Amino acid sequence: MKNLLFMIAFLIGIVSINAQTVVTEVTPDGYITEPSYVYIFGSTSDTLTNGDTTTYVMRVQGLDALDFNIKAYVDRVSGTAGGTVILSQSIDGVTYQSELGDTITLSGITSDVMDTETISKSGFNYPYFKIEWIQTGTTVTVPKLFIYGKKD
Predict the structure, then answer these.
(1) Contact, 26 vs 92, CB < 8 A?
(2) Phi, psi (rounded to 5 degrees) for 49
(3) Comparing C-alpha atoms, which of 92, 19, 108, 74 is closest to residue 11?
(4) How far apart are CA 128 and CA 34, in angstroms?
(5) What is the pTM of this model?
(6) Does residue 122 sit in helix, strand or coil?
(7) Are strands 113-114 and 66-90 parallel, antiparallel or unpaired?
(8) Is pLDDT of 128 > 90?
(9) Span 51-68, average pLDDT
(10) Where are the domains of the chain?
(11) Number of other CB atoms surrounding residue 67 within 10 Å
C-alpha cells in the first residue's frame, strides 16, 4: 500500500512539473547584447510618407541592467517633416507600456537633421523594448535611430 501511494505521488509530481508553461521568445527585429551601438531603420525600404508609422522591437540580452541613449535622425526626401519617437518596454514581448518622457518630438523639419533630444534610460532591466516612429506632416523621409547601450 505504501508503494502504491508513493507511486501515485511520484506520478502526480512528474505530471505537474511537465504541465508548467514555458515562456517562448517573441521574435524581435534585432538584439542588444551587453554594450552595443546599433542603428535601426534607415534604408530606402523604410521610407515613410505623410502619416506613416513604423515599429521596431529589440530583445535585450545579457546578465546586466543596461543604460541606453537613443537619438533620432531624419533623412528628409521632400516636404516638411515632423513626428514622434516613442519608447515602450515589455516583460513578455507582447504587452508594452510607455513611461512619460520616453519620447522624442520632431517638427518643422525641412532638411536632413539629427534631433537634439535624447531618450536616456538608466538601469534598463526589461527583456524587450519597442521603438515606434509616428510621422506627421506632408513629407517623405527615411528615419534613422541610433541606440547606444552600455553596462549599468
Answers:
(1) yes
(2) -125, 130
(3) 19
(4) 14
(5) 0.77
(6) strand
(7) antiparallel
(8) yes
(9) 88
(10) 22-151
(11) 16
